[in-house]
Amino acid sequence: MNVKDFDYELPEELIAQDPLSDRSASRLMVLNRETGAVAHRHFSDILDYLAPGDCLVLNNTKVIPARLWGEKEDTHAKIEVLLLKRREGDVWETLVKPGKKARCGARLVFGGGLLTGEVTDVVEEGNRLIRFSCEGIFEEILDRLGQMPLPPYITHALADKNRYQTVYAKYDGSAAAPTAGLHFTKELLAAAAGKGVKIAEVTLHVGLGTFRPVKVENIADHHMHEEVYMVSREAADIINETKRSGHRVVAVGTTSTRTLESAAGIDGTLAETSGSTDIFIYPGYRFKVVDALITNFHLPQSTLVMLVSAMAGRERVLDAYRTAVKERYRFFSFGDAMLII
User: Fold this and answer.
1) Per-residue pLDDT reduced to its tens digit, 163-205
2) Contact between residue 96 and residue 102 where contact means Cβ atoms under 8 Å apart
3) Which residue range(s) make up the domain with 117?
């Protein structure tokens, strides 16, 4: 398959720049993957499509304020650092701009010296390993100095950093939000549980690899970056019982989907596990665990559009996207949602 097979026209004004004041007020397109039929609802109507015994699977990762602005210690040249993944201790894999100013041995200063770093290595795709030092707790310093790593297509400042965080976020580690979960409120999740819908939580720390453009013509030649995931025994038991009882596993987001499909055995059974995954899901993939998917509208030619197309079929997804454009849905991270059933 060619990467251009997953292209579509998107007017720039449909890219959502700000989150809605009410998380669950987003619009919801419901796509039937068997018939291609589309319904237009609001996200607060999601319970109409969930039955008692179904299981919502949430990614409980927490976005860290991973974007830092600092300067080189010797020249005072300005520099931007984006934390991607913790390697060990205080050593992080990072994306540095401009990279030419961050050669091995370069010393960086942030917050007037509250935090310092030394570039120790250059790794895959020019990313830098930086060893950070500070007096105090690194996470507290980062929370004070760092900014939320909003995607480049969002140009507005974020007034409340918690709006780029799900209400169930628990474990620090992501460089981007699992955005399908941004639509849920605590009240909506409580209502789902009250209806008899099971809720299981998994963890996948989202890296930028998920969002990197596909630079090869044949999508089968694209390689995903590894992301760390974890499935607890409790989550595995809940999901396995859901499948055994004939109910649906509804993944909230592509990250939950990738976690489940990476962790499952050949027969679709889950066990307590953790590890790294570079799974790339595109049309032709056979899902082992996930029966339905809640997701946002994704960038043209992206691996996320390819994953959604694997679930519902490329032509049906692109038809739905064209309908979303016509109906003026809001796209991407702060945009509206799609439910594929």
Assistant:
1) 999 999 999 999 999 999 999 999 999 999 999 999 999 999 9
2) yes
3) 67-145
